[in-house]
Design brief:
Elements lengths: L19 E2 L24 H12 L10 H4 L6 E2 L1 H12 L27 E8 L1 E4 L6 E9 L5 E8 L4 E7 L5 H4 L4 E7 L4 E7 L4 H7 L8 E13 L6 E7 L3 E2 L15 E2 L2 E4 L2 E3 L1 E3 L4 E4 L17 H11 L8 H4 L9 H13 L31
């Protein structure tokens, strides 16, 4: 994937997507927190919080934005949900005011990104793995989080090969840590042209009110907590091998507006967890993705993709007449007992001529053994076994 990087005046940058990185450029006079210029006076209020969320998740245009630096309310060099929380804490919960320039306009005295590049070992993200054959759908890949400290929100961004995999759904509200605490705000989206997906959540989107109600505004600690489940498909024509789904920082998040801005104006997205107003980088574990296999039809002993009398004859010839080894022993194992013997030939003949039970899955369409752990059961030459 081509990564696009730009260096424009900060005032001319677009703030949309999950995390917009503030790019250094000619200085811009602004008031931190004043997301959009008020017509009558410069002021920072809840309307700016609404505008900030609109910039983060609705993809407003550059002409609607005063200055991206104004959205970096916690002054860490990234525009994220932590900035929304910082603003709300200031307005409603006696939090500190935005750093300079505030309340008077001026240039940014602290340009650059201050979020630590080193991952905090207390937090980690992981993506699970699965296997399938071309045109398989519904392959479930869990996205999990381990956090030794409570957090108030998170963003995840991941990349995959759109010529091998297609994301059909991101499930965030079924048995996840987000649904378990009824997170107020969850956004999940993907782009199968770019091969990018992202998830963002705030435990308490109505931050101004949690201190009044006394509700906990944090996601609990835990190990391998389910954040979401990706439902993916293997596209037709995908090459055999492992197709990775992996977390990547700094991706350009696609815009889903009808009239999208140019790609070079899209912001970068980052994998982060949030402790109220602080953004923290977690450890990003690798190894997620789908093992793309050719698959087999159980009972198709000779591997011609046609199920007929030639198949039990192939089994008998292999067992008793010195015939060639079939190309896929899993396909020969008609009763799926992980043994190749006379019972398999009899199973096929019984099914074909006496109405007996059909071969075990995958049948009649090609697929992988549903009881296979991904390493192969008896082996298929087509899968490199």
């Amino acid at each position: 994937m081509t990564r696009l990087f730009i260096s424009l005046p900060a005032c001319a940058m677009l703030a949309l997507g999950l995390n917009a990185q503030v790019v250094a450029g000619p200085p811009c006079a602004f008031v931190r927190g004043n997301i959009v210029n008020d017509a009558s006076a410069v002021r920072v209020d809840l309307n700016d919080g609404v505008d900030l969320i609109s910039f983060l998740f609705e993809g407003k245009f550059v002409s609607e934005l005063t200055c991206v630096d104004a959205g970096d309310i916690n002054d860490d060099g990234l525009v994220t949900m932590a900035d929304y929380t910082y603003l709300i804490e200031f307005l409603f919960n006696d939090g500190p005011p935005p750093p300079p320039p505030f309340p008077d306009p001026g240039p940014d005295p602290t340009p650059g990104v201050s979020v630590a590049n080193l991952a905090d070992p207390r937090f980690s993200f992981s993506i699970g793995s699965g296997s399938g054959v071309p045109n398989n759908t519904g392959i479930a890949l869990p996205i999990t989080m381990t956090n030794d400290a409570e957090i108030t929100g998170l963003t995840l961004v991941f990349e995959y090969d759109p010529f091998s995999l297609r994301v059909d759904e991101i499930i965030t509200e079924e048995n996840t840590v987000l649904s378990g605490v009824s997170a107020d705000y969850i956004i999940a989206s993907f782009d199968n042209v770019a091969g990018i997906g992202f998830i963002g959540s705030l435990r308490d989107f109505s931050t101004p009110f949690y201190f009044i109600s006394g509700e906990d505004n944090a996601l609990p600690t835990g190990t391998d907590q389910l954040v979401a489940t990706l439902k993916v498909a293997v596209v037709n024509g995908a090459n055999q091998g492992f197709s990775a789904v992996e977390f990547v920082d700094g991706l350009k998040v696609p815009n889903n507006r009808v009239v999208a801005p140019p790609a070079e104006l899209l912001p970068e997205a980052h994998n982060l967890v949030f402790d109220l107003t602080t953004a923290i980088r977690p450890t990003l574990n690798s190894g997620g993705g789908v093992s793309v296999r050719r698959g087999f039809i159980r009972g198709d002993a000779n591997g011609d993709t046609v199920f007929d009398i030639a198949d039990p004859i192939t089994v008998l010839n292999y067992l008793f007449a010195g015939g060639e080894k079939p190309p896929c022993l899993d396909a020969v194992d008609a009763n799926n007992d992980t043994k190749i013997n006379l019972a398999d030939a009899l199973w096929l003949l019984n099914f074909m001529f006496r109405g007996g039970p059909q071969p075990s899955e995958p049948f009649p369409q090609p697929g992988i053994d549903p009881s296979d752990d991904g390493s192969g059961s008896l082996g298929c030459a087509s899968d490199g076994d």
